[in-house]
């Protein structure tokens, strides 16, 4: 499915009301076409206590899911709703193992829609700590990239079950070579746009033998 982008926005029409989602922006999408889809929408809604409204009425469990998240939502607002969607699909009695989940984005290079897959991402609503190290292969060199609420990135080595701070870096100056695995950690106060910007940066890099761990920590 390749859709012409009307604006940077998705306009949702329902019950004679109009709602708008401002899609997160990415520089250049690696995924631009998906077939057999159904959408979910996470609206930025100031009338809601948590500022987020979820619409999932048209989701079909056997299809690829396009999750449209307003870029103004914080991770603290959006991720619990996304976890809910993941659980609904995983627990469905009519699952299609080949169906995947994607975030819908605005691809700036083509002024069109692009997609970032998150099918196997496992979100943990906590800070990474020693109890989380059981998820890590002890024989691998592991880099933790911690995206702080001030939009700086703290690079941390995980060595012998200890966190060793390497320093603070900017998004365009990541140092990731000589590692087997990268784990991502995010402040819950970051916007969904901030989150997608880092994910976009990582998908555009040829990591060769480096694995991005499926476990992501939101604190």
Could you characterize what this model shows?
The chain has two domains: 9-119, no CATH class; 123-218, Nucleotidyltransferase, domain 5 (2-Layer Sandwich). The protein has helices at residues 75-90, 192-203; strands at 9-14, 17-22, 25-26, 37-44, 52-55, 64-69, 101-107, 112-117, 122-124, 142-147, 153-159, 162-169, 181-186, 211-218. With 219 residues, it is mainly beta. The radius of gyration is 18 Å and the shape is globular. It has two helices and 14 strands; from the N terminus they run E-E-E-E-E-E-H-E-E-E-E-E-E-E-H-E. Strands 3, 4, 5, 6, 7 and 8 form a six-stranded mixed beta sheet that branches. Residues 1-8 have low confidence and may be disordered. The longest helix has 16 residues, at 75-90.
Briefly characterize the structure.
With 219 residues, the protein is mainly beta. It contains 2 helices and 14 strands; from the N terminus they run ββββββαβββββββαβ.
Helix and strand topology:
Elements: E1 9-14, E2 17-22, E3 25-26, E4 37-44, E5 52-55, E6 64-69, H1 75-90, E7 101-107, E8 112-117, E9 122-124, E10 142-147, E11 153-159, E12 162-169, E13 181-186, H2 192-203, E14 211-218
Parallel strand pairs: 3-7, 4-6, 6-7, 9-14, 10-13, 13-14
Antiparallel strand pairs: 1-2, 4-5, 7-8, 10-11, 11-12
Indicate the percent of residues in helices.
10-25%
Radius of gyration: 18 Å
Structural class: mainly beta
The secondary-structure element order is EEEEEEHEEEEEEEHE
Percentage of β-strand residues: 35-45%
Number of strands: 14
Unreliable runs: 1-8
Main β-sheet, in a few words? Answer: 6 strands, mixed
Work out the helix count: 2
* Average pLDDT score: 89
Compute the separation of the termini in Å. Answer: 35 Å
**What is the 3D form?**
globular
Number of domains: 2
């Amino acid at each position: 499915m390749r859709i012409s982008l009307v604006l940077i926005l998705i306009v949702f029409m329902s019950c004679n009301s109009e709602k708008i989602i401002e899609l997160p922006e990415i520089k250049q999408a690696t995924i631009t076409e998906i077939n057999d889809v159904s959408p979910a929408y996470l609206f930025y809604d100031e009338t809601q206590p948590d500022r987020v409204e979820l619409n999932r009425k048209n989701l079909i469990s056997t299809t690829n899911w396009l999750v449209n998240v307003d870029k103004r939502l914080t991770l603290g607002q959006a991720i619990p709703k996304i976890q809910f969607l993941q659980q609904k699909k995983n627990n469905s009695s009519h699952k299609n193992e080949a169906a995947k989940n994607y975030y819908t984005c605005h691809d700036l290079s083509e002024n069109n829609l692009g997609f970032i897959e998150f099918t196997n991402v496992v979100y943990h609503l906590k800070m990474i700590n020693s109890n989380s190290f059981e998820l890590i292969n002890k024989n691998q060199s592991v880099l933790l990239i911690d995206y702080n609420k001030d939009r700086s990135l703290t690079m941390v080595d995980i060595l012998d079950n200890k966190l060793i701070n390497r320093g603070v870096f900017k998004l365009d100056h990541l140092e990731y070579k000589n590692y087997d695995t990268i784990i991502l950690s995010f402040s819950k106060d970051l916007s969904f746009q901030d989150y997608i910007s880092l994910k976009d940066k990582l998908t555009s890099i040829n990591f060769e033998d480096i694995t991005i761990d499926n476990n992501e920590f939101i604190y």
